[in-house]
Design brief:
With 299 residues, this protein is of the alpha+beta class. The chain contains six helices and 20 strands. It has a five-stranded antiparallel beta sheet with strand order 6-7-15-11-12, with helices on one face. Strands 1-2-5-3 form a four-stranded mixed beta sheet. β6 and β7 form a beta hairpin. α2 runs antiparallel to α4. It binds flavin-adenine dinucleotide (FAD).
Length: 299
């Protein structure tokens, strides 16, 4: 039980800070601040901060690398948890079983598996993010998705209770899972032995494909919209004549129409306005309602 003060995180100042700009923690580099930024160094610190949020009704947000995220200009009036300390980035190989913390960078992990001669994560080539964000979004594409190699996922609810979800009860669908707990803490992943050169060659092939088809070296947040069943959101946007359309500093990518690129001076409001225009124009032309893939905070 903590002492009752005005500060809901009193005593936790070593890892909770107030009014922290979030833009630098996102791929887009835009958006406002978090009322509280929580960067726990251990499970115990995470549990304590989560319980404080529950007791005081502070909304909980969990941030990975912010690669699929648009933070609104006014910021987030809640607690943003960032699992970036060493404990959350641990990687352990036991035979073909890989144990990883949720904050592990997927690209660094992929390169490590290549070096270790373990195959299975090649489909993640060119997809920025953490393991936690990757599992939450079941990230992937035409070469496969992360869900297919996941063995177990450790999750935590907002009261601090920890559960291990196994392959038998996990469902991974197109850009979603059936995990409802707010926190993904880590996972075990099943890999297969292969020669590092062969794994590297597959990884490079996938990465080249992505580099040729997506605006990888721009500020963006990946695909804005999910592909409607049997259709390509990018093709629908392209056929609506929207490639290159600009609102303020936000532009529909000329390389891949399902990406919105943020140029200098771009605000989150510019991106939101452009999203609204795209949805309206695609509906007018194709009678298809596009659904967001990007997570928008605080909506
Ligand atoms: C250039 C570029 C290319 C991309 N290409 C692809 C692609 O080909 N395929 C694809 O699927 N995606 C792609 N993306 C989107 C993005 O890379 C993935 O969605 C990735 O999984 C996001 O991970 P993240 O850690 O950045 O999550 P964030 O963007 O930080 O968060 C995304 C969601 O996951 C939740 N989350 C994050 N960490 C945790 C956690 N530990 N516990 C619980 N919830 C958590 C957040 O709350 C949020 O709801 C691309 C993005 C970019 C910028």
């Amino acid at each position: 039980m903590h002492l009752v003060t005005d500060n809901p995180f009193s005593g936790l100042e070593a890892f909770v800070t107030e009014n922290v700009p979030l833009a630098r923690f996102t791929w887009y580099k835009i958006g406002g601040p978090a009322r509280y930024l929580v960067q726990p160094r251990s499970i115990e610190e995470l549990q304590e901060a989560a319980r404080r949020c529950t007791e005081t009704n502070i909304p909980i947000y969990v941030l990975g690398l912010g690669a699929n995220l648009l933070v609104c200009d006014q910021g987030v009036d809640g607690a943003v948890f960032r699992l970036n300390e060493e404990f959350w980035r641990r990687i352990k190989f036991t035979g073909n079983l890989l144990e990883v913390g949720a904050g592990t960078d997927m690209q660094k992990l992929l390169l490590r598996t290549v070096r270790e001669g373990k195959s299975g994560l090649e489909c993640l080539a060119g997809i920025p993010g953490t393991i936690g964000g990757g599992i939450r979004m079941n990230c992937g594409g035409k070469f496969g998705d992360i869900g297919s190699v996941i063995s177990t996922v450790t999750v935590m609810d907002s009261q601090g209770n920890i559960f291990v979800r196994t392959k038998d009860d996990l469902v991974f669908d197109y850009r979603r899972t059936n995990i409802v707990a707010p926190f993904i803490l880590g996972a075990t992943i099943e890999l297969e032995d292969d020669h590092p050169d062969a794994i590297m060659s597959r990884t490079r092939e996938i990465w080249m494909y992505k580099r040729n088809t997506q605006p990888l070296n721009t500020k963006n947040c990946g695909c804005i919209f999910k592909n409607p069943r049997g259709l390509s959101a990018g093709a629908l946007i392209d056929q609506s004549g929207l490639k290159g359309l600009r609102v303020g500093g936000a532009e529909v990518s000329t390389k891949h129409a399902n990406f919105i690129v943020a140029h200098k001076g771009c605000s989150s409001q510019d991106v939101l306005k452009l999203i609204k225009i795209i949805k309206e124009r695609v509906y007018d032309k194709h009678q298809v309602v596009l659904e967001s893939e990007v997570r928008i905070w605080p909506l």
